[in-house]
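Q: DUF1353 domain-containing protein, please. Structure only.
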Amino acid sequence: MDVLNLKPARISHSNKLNNAYELVEDFAYEHDCKVHWVPKFFQYDGASIPKVAYYLVGTPFNPRYMQAALVHDWLYHTHELDRAVADHLFYIMLRQSGVRHSTATIMKYAVELFGRWYWHNDAADIAYKEELEGLILKDGRNPSVYGL
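A: Structure for DUF1353 domain-containing protein:
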């Protein structure tokens, strides 16, 4: 896996939580022997872990969760892969980052159970994707490389 280069977002987009991070450079990940990319400028708010579950699995910005959460959030925005594949990839990336099997299984079960409410992009998500496309174009890159 690639190195994750983030910075705290100065201004979080309206479809994110207050504590969002922004990619400083593109992030590469592999699925089915193909390299995929999450673009520079993408903001995400860590793993979606309710406060009551912090004791069981940890906080949203646990370093071992960051890459898996980034890719999972990106795939929920772009639908570049099916939801079930995105959820399974989340589990695989957690395990590759050193997350225990039991914790990764709980987290995968949670995204399978609750992810359906976030899979369909609402107006704020669509607006965010359009803004992101504009930033990518302004940066001299092609949005289609990222599944946009």
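A: Brief note, in case it's useful. The chain has six helices and five strands.
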